[in-house]
Amino acid sequence: MRLLLTNDDGIHSPGIHALAAHLVAAGHDVTVAAPAQDMSGASAAIGRLHADEHIDVTETPVPGTPLVGFAVAGPPGLAAMAACLGAFGAPPEIVVSGINAGLNTGHSTLHSGTLGAALTAQNFGTCGVAVSIEPTDPWHWESACEYASSAIAWLADRAPTRTVLNVNVPGRPRDEIEGVRWAKLDRFGSVRAAVAESGRNGLQFEFRATGADLDPDSDTALVRAGYATLTAVQGVSEVDITERERPGVRAPDVRRDLREAPGVHRVEIPAAPQ
Questions:
Q1: Residue 149 counted as domain residue
Q2: Do the Cβ atoms of 20 and 112 come closer than 8 Å?
Q3: Which of 109, 157, 200, 204 is the most buried (most CB within 10 A)?
Q4: Does some domain include residue 112?
Q5: What is the pTM of this model?
């Protein structure tokens, strides 16, 4: 398979190096293009684009592989978009994003640059997979590599076009993982972001326990129980709201609005033609 490998932790992160080596050893045609620096939390952002300005791209060796990757001065969504448009050679058949150093579970994945890159690929008609692993010391990158390979094989053999999988792996050796489960996105999560301090000098956030009971079929709960999880996700799409459910939309009454506007006097508005 012709794969683009990107991430949001940056091209120098150990997770992307481990996955690149694993995919090359498996015989895939891999192109690495990832942010030049950590762009975590970038979602599917691409940054500002100007027709008369270029974006810096620097070639850099990928440790553990014969590959020379592209360090992009921008977020992972930009790298994925550029690859799908042919910036680094033939467009990829699948965009692979990761391995992220930390889980991407629940509805907070809206903000994940790891998942954002895969969803950008979906927007361009390509399949994608986002791979994340639970933090441990030491890291178990190889466990995540094996589940990433399985997800790629499933996408290549059976998945409809534009399918995106979010893969989360417990921080355990492969033989200690309970198996793999399809999972729902966790709605509440075990922690939430909160503003710890705000003022003229800036903001400081902290993470607090929610105390919410986890849905046992959610990605967060299943990873906690020792399972790797797969969740098929959808990016930008319209919502089908029936005629009866649609709120009424009234055209603005310009004549009335002008008459009622504060500070407006003696405004002459011609009558509408009959």
A1: yes
A2: no
A3: 109
A4: yes
A5: 0.84
| Residue position matching structure tokens 């033609």 | 273
Which one-letter amino acid corresponds to residue 147? Y
Integer distance in angstroms from the first to the last C-alpha of the chain?
Answer: 67
pLDDT in tens, 239-259: 877 766 666 656 555 555 545
Q: Would 97 be classed as within a structural domain?
A: yes
The pLDDT of residue 256: 55
Determine how β-strand 179-182 pairs with β-strand 57-61: unpaired
The CATH code of the domain that includes 180 is: 3.40.1210.10
Tens of pLDDT, residues 88-109 = 999 999 999 999 999 999 998 9
CA 172 centroid distance within chain = 23
Rounded CA separation 130/139 (Å): 18
Q: Is residue 46 part of a domain?
A: yes
Structural domains counted in the chain:
1
